[in-house]
């Protein structure tokens, strides 16, 4: 089996029974804020895109690059489609010209022509990607590969059941806006960032230990930030709170915990994988490349500046009545929302500036009033969540009829945020569900989730707690860690006060726990 690195989470898997291209991403994503690093735009995409199968793990724009898919990927390729609750991924791929689809069943092995076997595990909670994330397992002639990319399954048991895995590809770096965009003192921001960075690595070590593959490939990050206003987010300043460590940092941290089987893929790297060995060739020396990371980034910044400028020129639509358009789009969804509206529990304020981000003069302030079920001008009331961003970005979201602000505005990091109290997952869940289909699915999921009763317990230290985390049902017998009276679920870092059961990370999600009798 041959594995060719094609950048970020993308790779091409070649076997004698066919080839699979995974998650090709080349063009800037999220309001031109994210770029693949190392740069993969100079690869021979005409050849790489001539494949038998295409796998797009989910709709996040650093995995689903519509422009690139339309231009370079063969429309004769059969799409390996995850089993998602909405049809949006299939619909968008059909719009790009793809016509052949294998609609997989989650956790079910499908045998393709020539003995090639695949299985896709789909994650389908409202907080998984843009309503869905997935992992791809591939087997040919006894060689097995797991491309886990961004997905965070509660465990890897299903993949272990299918036999020993020879290559494990998984995310290790950040792919979020927290804590960088929050209006916090720099010291606090650094401390929170370090916690997140450490937690990312801890989660990665757990997955690696679960699967025990022969070879581990760090993929799916980090992006790089080439716009001048976002340049500070690149991990080149010695900031221990930066959440975007690169592959060279992964290798160093992995070595500290005894890892000796890591394999880095640059764009153009090729690994020849067998049951007993791996041989990897690179287009350039890996250590030397990362030692000169800042120079590479500066060269990219200069080369990609016209691309960013062209994108920015398309965002302003001053003819749009932002308040009126948001009322028309959001108020019907507020009327139908029960769980998410109650979960948010108050008004959310958007301050819109005359720039392309939070810097600049505020020209309009709008409130999405969840209890009042309306969108209206800000009336000087107290809010628990406030976002500050460029009015032009909201104009553009309206212009393109964007139904997922997480997969556009929030991941762009072109905003600042402030909140009073705990993190509230319902805020972000709602703004990725600005369509009837997504809203109805999310409301149904929360309804079923809230009514589920977890009867099974596990013992952690001096406490007996429900085995499944109230957040996304991670197995606390594996991911739970108790320090005094606080339980931390290491999968997503959520914390719970055990005597009261109260979630310390977000509103809701109470845990059932009692002190074990001695």
TrEMBL record:
Gene3D superfamilies, per this entry? Ribonuclease Z/Hydroxyacylglutathione hydrolase-like, Rieske [2Fe-2S] iron-sulphur domain
Iron-sulfur as a keyword of this entry, yes or no, is yes
Q: Does the keyword Metal-binding apply?
A: yes
User: What domain of life does the native source organism fall in?
Assistant: Bacteria
What residues does the Rieske domain cover? 465-518
Q: Which UniProt keywords are present, listed alphabetically?
A: 2Fe-2S, Iron, Iron-sulfur, Metal-binding
Protein name per its UniProtKB record: Rieske 2Fe-2S domain-containing protein
Organism, by scientific name, is Paractinoplanes ovalisporus
Q: What is the lineage of its organism?
A: Bacteria, Bacillati, Actinomycetota, Actinomycetes, Micromonosporales
């Amino acid at each position: 089996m041959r594995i060719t690195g094609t950048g970020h989470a993308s790779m091409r898997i070649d076997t004698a029974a066919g080839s699979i291209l995974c998650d090709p991403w080349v063009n800037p994503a999220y309001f031109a804020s994210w770029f693949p690093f190392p740069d993969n735009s100079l690869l021979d995409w005409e050849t790489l895109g001539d494949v038998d199968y295409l796998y797009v793990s989910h709709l996040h724009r650093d995995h689903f690059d519509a422009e690139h898919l339309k231009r370079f990927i063969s429309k004769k390729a059969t799409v390996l489609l995850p089993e998602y609750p909405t049809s949006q991924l299939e619909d968008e791929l059909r719009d790009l010209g793809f016509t052949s689809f294998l609609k997989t069943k989650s956790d079910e092995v499908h045998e393709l022509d020539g003995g090639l076997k695949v299985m896709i595990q789909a994650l389908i909670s409202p907080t998984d990607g843009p309503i869905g994330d997935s992992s791809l397992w591939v087997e040919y002639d006894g060689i097995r590969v797991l491309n886990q990319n961004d997905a965070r399954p509660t465990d890897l048991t299903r993949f272990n059941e299918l036999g020993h895995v020879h290559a494990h590809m998984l995310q290790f770096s950040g792919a979020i806006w927290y804590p960088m965009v929050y209006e916090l003192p720099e010291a606090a921001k650094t401390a929170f960032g370090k916690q997140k960075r450490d937690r990312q690595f801890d989660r990665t070590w757990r997955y690696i230990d679960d699967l025990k593959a022969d070879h581990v490939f760090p993929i799916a990050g980090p992006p790089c930030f080439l716009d001048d206003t976002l340049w500070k987010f690149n991990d080149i300043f010695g900031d221990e709170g930066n959440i975007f460590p690169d592959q060279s940092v992964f290798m160093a941290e992995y070595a500290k915990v005894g890892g000796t089987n890591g394999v880095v893929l640059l764009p153009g790297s090729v690994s020849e994988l067998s049951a007993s060995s791996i041989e990897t060739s690179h287009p350039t020396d890996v250590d030397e490349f990362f030692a000169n990371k800042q120079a590479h980034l500066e060269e990219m910044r200069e080369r990609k500046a016209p691309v960013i400028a062209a994108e920015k020129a398309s965002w302003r639509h001053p003819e749009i009545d932002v308040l009126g358009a948001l009322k028309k789009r959001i108020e019907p969804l507020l009327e139908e929302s029960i769980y998410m509206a109650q979960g948010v529990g108050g008004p959310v304020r958007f301050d819109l500036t005359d720039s392309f981000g939070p810097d600049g003069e505020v020209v309009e302030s709008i409130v999405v009033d969840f209890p009042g079920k309306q969108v209206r001008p800000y009336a000087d009331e107290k809010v628990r969540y406030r976002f500050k961003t460029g009015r032009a970005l909201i104009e553009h979201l309206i212009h393109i009829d964007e139904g997922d602000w997480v997969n556009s505005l929030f991941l762009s990091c072109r905003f600042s945020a402030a909140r009073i109290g705990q993190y509230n997952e319902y805020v972000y869940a709602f703004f990725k569900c600005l369509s009837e289909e997504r809203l109805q699915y999310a409301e149904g999921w929360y309804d079923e989730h809230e009514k589920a009763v977890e009867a099974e317990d596990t013992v952690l230290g001096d406490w007996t707690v429900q085995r499944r985390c109230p957040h996304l049902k991670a197995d606390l017998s594996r991911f739970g860690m108790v320090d005094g009276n606080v339980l931390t679920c290491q999968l997503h870092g959520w914390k719970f006060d055990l005597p009261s059961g109260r979630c310390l990370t977000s509103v809701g999600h109470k845990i059932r726990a009692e002190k074990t009798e001695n």
